[in-house]
Amino acid sequence: MTRRPDGLLNHNVLDDDKAPQDACGVFGVWAPKEEVAKLTFYGLYALQHRGQESAGIAASDGERILIYKDMGLVSQVFTETDLASLTGDLAIGHCRYSTTGSSTWVNAQPTLRPTKYGTLALAHNGNLTNTGDLAEMVQKLEGESPKSGRGATTDTEIMTALIGLQDEKNLEASAIAVLPKLEGAFSLVFMDEKTLYAARDRHGVRPLVIGKLERGWVVASETAALDIVGAAFVREVEPGEFLAINEEGIRSQMWATPDPKGCIFEYVYLARPDTTIAGQGVHATRVQIGKRLAIEAPVEADLVIPVPESGTPAAIGYAQQSGIPYGLGLVKNSYVGRTFIQPSQTIRQLGIRLKLNPLREIIEGKRIVVVDDSIVRGNTQRAIVRMLREAGAREIHVRISSPPVEWPCYYGIDFASRAELIASGLEIEEIRRSIGSDSLSYVSMEGLIEATTIDENKLCTACFTGKYPISVPADMSEGKMRLEVTEVVKNHEHI
Questions:
Q1: What's the mean pLDDT when you consider all of the chain?
Q2: Whether 24 is catalytic
Q3: In a 3-state reduction of DSSP, which class is residue 248?
Q4: Which residue range(s) make up the domain with 431?
Q5: What is the pLDDT of residue 101?
Q6: Cα-flanking dihedrals φ and ψ of residue 438, to 5°?
Q7: Among the options 24, 95, 263, 409, which is catalytic?
């Protein structure tokens, strides 16, 4: 029996202290006479950092849509044979990290649904905040006996059902009718047999960009995915914009008045460093954040080191601004994910060293500045500080290239709950004592915003400030399983 990929590879240094995870990556291509499934595969490969639980591709040959999806990383899910079977002129793809619904095969995307206009396939990055209300709408439209046979428990599935159930003249009109009913964050790519569609919420919380191929068009979560398939960046999909791409060309219409609130955490951690968002290179922005950090939190030290890879650009900026030499003090094993083989107690005690190990000859006897992107629960930083002390560091000064994360995100990032976020209950000095460093400083909110060069009123900073630009209903506190909870309740009601 072949063991299926588990999709559990991750970049977390400690599995019980995971970094904030992005919801998903989406990719769509309309390119006649091109190998659209392979283009989509490579596009998803470039977006792998946005979701590592499952992946899927849907392709259309003009007559029918075929879809293949499974649990695991993009490279694990698809073989050459799988991609060869997905022929046609257009395709969409998705790599998932779950923010609504369990990490199961049935919740993998793209979703697929028959409609009276043909077949609808849809992929979604983000998180809706009114999923409960939308589920009720679907229930009313379907009546007593649901036609879809839905097994999925995601906001994406609800959205797909709602578009498919509209009584409009075509799929485009149905989508335009549904989009104003959706609240929260969503960047969508979807398709029927002949047309590729894309849409973005009016706040533009999650990124979405358009690229031009020699013979076609690409829509993707990040510009890095355009680069890998050889598409030239054209522009961002505007907040509140709807696109339709087919043999007649590309058509655009605004379905809502834009009110930009781009996610500031994309600049801190989520996006690839080689991506551009709102005209700003992410790597350059992170270097700038590091420079701001050096101005705001100087310290006398011998060496600046990053926590790889997330802290690297900010550490470069800190070193440049402070004049303290930059060096590699920690080596990361990029190939280690969670494993089904449980470590023995001896190995478990070593914990972090499976993924990170210090360069003793670099560290020993030195005053070290350690730069990382964020502190979630604090366990990772505590383990790193302890390990650096064991390697002979004389002083350890921790610098963080984002303000304290005090609030969870409801717009497509899976953060720890507020109770688990160390900064929600402790002052900075208390956090310093908890992790055991000689000093601890975070970049200020003002410094972070200044580094992005984007107006504060065009950014979502909720995870740092608690100011949510899109209203968050009470049932969001049930977390990513809220649709499954609802389902259980309903089942009990019938008993």
A1: 87
A2: yes
A3: coil
A4: 281-465
A5: 53
A6: -75, -30
A7: 24
Residue 139, SS3?
helix
If you compute the radius of gyration of the chain from its CA atoms, what whole number of angstroms results? 23
pLDDT exceeds 50 at position 163 = yes
| Pair 257, 286 in one domain | no
Q: At what angle do helices 131-142 and 482-494 cross, to 10 degrees?
A: 40
Count of the separate structural domains present in the chain: 2
Task: Quote the CA–CA distance of 157 and 477 in Å, as a whole number.
Answer: 20
Token match 């995307």: residue?
Answer: 109
- Residue 85's nearest CA partner among 121, 110, 58, 104 is 58
Q: Kindly report, residue by residue over 414-459, the tens digit of the pLDDT.
A: 766 888 899 998 999 999 999 999 999 999 999 999 999 999 999 9
Q: Which of 227, 261, 295 is the last residue of a domain?
A: 261
My answer on whether omega of the bond before 469 falls inside 30° of 0, hence cis, is no
239 & 290 share domain: no
Alpha carbon separation from 487 to 99, 481, 491 (Å, rounded): 17, 10, 6
pLDDT in tens, 369-423: 999 999 988 888 999 999 999 999 999 999 999 999 999 988 988 766 888 899 9
Q: For position 336, what pLDDT does the model report?
A: 60
CA dihedral of residues 206, 260, 183, 40 (deg, nearest 10):
-30
10 belongs to a structural domain: no
Q: What pLDDT band is residue 13 in, cutting at 50, 70 and 90?
A: low
Please state the pTM of the whole predicted model: 0.87
Burial class (CB in 10 A: 0-12, 13-18, 19+), 255: middle
The two structure tokens encoding residue 16 = 């019980």
- 104, burial (CB in 10 Å: exposed 0-12, middle 13-18, buried 19+): middle
Both 252 and 297 in one domain: the answer is: no
161 has pLDDT over 60 = yes
Q: Which residues have CB under 8 Å from 99's CB, separation 6+?
A: 23, 127, 412, 413, 414, 480
Is 36 contained in some domain?
A: yes
- Nearest Cα residue to 161 out of 135, 197, 195: 135
Q: Are residues 252 and 289 in the same domain?
A: no
| 341, 231: one domain | no
Q: In the chain, what's the furthest Cα-to-Cα distance? A: 73
Q: What is the pLDDT of residues 177-204, one digit of tens each?
A: 999 999 999 999 999 999 999 999 999 9
